[in-house]
């Protein structure tokens, strides 16, 4: 399944793949914000110890839509990849760029 939820998305439509991209960007932003809150909250111990750790889980399951490894752009997917359900967005590197942008603001 696609996470965040892809209910109602039609993967063969470019606008739906880009809508999924937007949902994934939002989830990345929300996850990073929650992680930063937990790491820097004054009631928790890490901030007082000067300790900061962010764990990023990465899955190499391209067809599931939840990886951080660079994906192929949609235009470069082979017919075989599309046949098994790959539904990449137009820009396959967007997740890494989005995460780098968010981390660059810290």
Write the layout of secondary structure elements.
Layout: H1 14-40, H2 45-49, H3 79-83, H4 94-104
Mean pLDDT: 82
Task: List unreliable stretches of 5+ residues.
Answer: none
Q: DSSP strand (E) fraction?
A: under 5%
Order of helices and strands: HHHH
Molecular shape = elongated
Distance between the termini: 32 Å
Number of helices: 4
Query: How much is the radius of gyration in Å?
Result: 16 Å
Tell me what the structure shows:
There is one protein chain. The chain has 106 residues and is an all-alpha fold. It has one domain. Helices cover 45% and strands 0% of the residues. It is built from four helices and no strands.
Which key features would you list for this structure?
106 residues, mainly alpha, 4 helices
């Amino acid at each position: 399944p696609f996470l965040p939820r892809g209910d109602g998305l039609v993967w063969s439509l470019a606008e739906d793949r880009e809508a999924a991209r937007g949902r994934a960007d939002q989830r990345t932003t929300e996850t990073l914000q929650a992680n930063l809150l937990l790491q820097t909250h004054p009631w928790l111990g890490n901030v007082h110890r000067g300790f900061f750790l962010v764990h990023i889980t990465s899955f190499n399951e391209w067809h599931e839509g939840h990886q951080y490894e660079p994906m192929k752009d949609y235009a470069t997917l082979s017919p075989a990849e599309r046949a098994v359900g790959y539904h990449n967005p137009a820009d396959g590197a967007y997740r890494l760029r989005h995460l780098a942008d968010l981390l660059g603001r810290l």
